[in-house]
């Protein structure tokens, strides 16, 4: 009888101390912490050049200038060919000049989220984010994480 009582006491003591030593095994305890899907950290801020667009205005101006220059070359049929070639070459050059004039600098903020996904957000002006800042996705952009 004493050995049965001692065994029961030992089992009770083991159960009580085991439950206290490992609270994660208690019923209703969530063993895995929830990850904020919209929270992350800035991993870098870089700049990039975005190529501008050329439109009809640049092509027209370049084409007119090229035609005028081409018209100064040769005579007769050669002059006509040079005028057409100058207009085509000038239109292409005008488009490229306008593209270069419309090129702009943008800032790209690289974010690694707590769920290991990554994203890049582009800003037209220098953002206030620095590498290491905690951020939260908000709409189509990011904001500082207040937590």
Automatic annotation (TrEMBL):
Residues 1-21 form the signal peptide. It holds the Pfam family Rick_17kDa_Anti. Residues 58-97 form the Glycine zipper 2TM domain. Keywords: Membrane, Signal. GO terms for cellular component: outer membrane. It is found in: Membrane. Its main location: membrane. This is Glycine zipper 2TM domain-containing protein.
């Amino acid at each position: 009888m004493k050995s049965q009582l001692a065994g029961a006491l030992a089992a009770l003591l083991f159960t009580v101390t085991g439950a206290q030593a490992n609270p994660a095994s208690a019923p209703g305890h969530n063993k895995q912490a929830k990850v904020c899907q919209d929270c992350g950290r800035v991993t870098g801020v870089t700049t990039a050049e975005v190529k501008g667009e050329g439109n009809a205005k640049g092509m027209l101006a370049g084409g007119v200038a090229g035609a005028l220059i081409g018209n100064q070359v040769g005579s007769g049929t050669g002059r006509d060919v040079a005028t057409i070639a100058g207009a085509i070459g000038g239109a292409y050059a005008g488009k490229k000049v306008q593209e270069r004039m419309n090129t702009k600098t943008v800032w790209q903020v690289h974010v690694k989220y707590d769920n290991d996904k990554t994203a890049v957000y582009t800003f037209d002006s220098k953002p206030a984010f620095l590498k290491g800042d905690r951020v939260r996705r908000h709409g189509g952009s990011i904001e500082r994480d207040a937590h």
